[in-house]
Amino acid sequence: VHWAAKAKLVKAYRNACGWKVRADGIGKIAADTVHVAMTFYPPTKAHYDLDGLISRMKAGLDAISAAIGVDDRHFTLSASKASTVEKHGMVKCEISWATVTREARAA
Hints:
Elements (H helix, E strand, L loop, with lengths): L2 H21 L9 E9 L8 H7 L1 H11 L6 E7 L8 E9 L3 H5 L1
Parallel strand pairs: 1-2
Antiparallel strand pairs: 1-3
């Protein structure tokens, strides 16, 4: 795939992920740590490496980061593969976060 064509697809995917986060009612948050639990639903029964699947989510994770206003360096990740096949493939992300209080930071 030509780099320009790929860049266009990545940008569209990032935008779609960002809008999905907003549509789910998650806006800007004040968090010290964000955990993203990803479940990958493959489009076929072919074998996929989990590390490869995670790397394919870079644009999606960037979109989550932008939508919630937390730098992705504060993310922790977990990933699993679903045993079922989903037409066209899909990734379900569950987002949770924690905020450390000022008192806890000072201690």
